[in-house]
Amino acid sequence: MQFFADTAEIDDIKELAATGLLDGVTTNPSLIAKSGRDFMEVTREIAGLVDGPVSAEVVALDHETMMKEADKLRAIADNVCIKVPLTIDGLKTCKALTGDGTMVNVTLCFSANQALLAAKAGASFISPFVGRHDDNGFDGMALIEDIRLIYDNYNFATEILVASVRHVTHVLEAALIGADVMTAPPKVIKALFNHVLTDKGIEGFLKDWKSTGQSIL
Ligand code: G3P
Question: Does the domain at residues 2-212 carry the CATH identifier 3.10.20.310?
């Protein structure tokens, strides 16, 4: 499963990229606003930090203006992936852009039927929001299971990008289902490394090692 960081914070992206485990980045208008940075400038900077896809979202609601915005965004770097909302105009834009060889991430997906439409529109990625689904009394992971089944039934190439990830259990469940990608805030990705028994184990080994009086170097 590929790991994307869901953030526009440069320091966090640099830290995660240095682990060698970061495959891409997703941003959205809220994350850009939170960063306080210029959209074009921060997208260019992020695209230079990772080799994989960097999602940058259009904000227009009509197809024609979405295409104009996408043209500006995709000119930033080859690894910029245009993010469009799951609307009729969004999917029209998706079809046009992917037909042109541009990566497209269809966002704000909350049903398996929407995911089916995105795959038919040739989306590179579909982003079901599991956390927001859970928040509203639905089962986000059941949605991922349904999409996995539908995409496998028809051999759709669209990759399932699990978004709105809130905790490490979401990541585990996404991997068990066979999602292609998950995007999570840096704090969730960092939490994946942690286990109390790892910390305890290191502490015990170091205590015993110290008692030998030896050094490796
Ligand atoms: O980038 C889209 C998605 O991951 C947003 O997550 O936590 O705002 O629901 P959240």
Answer: no
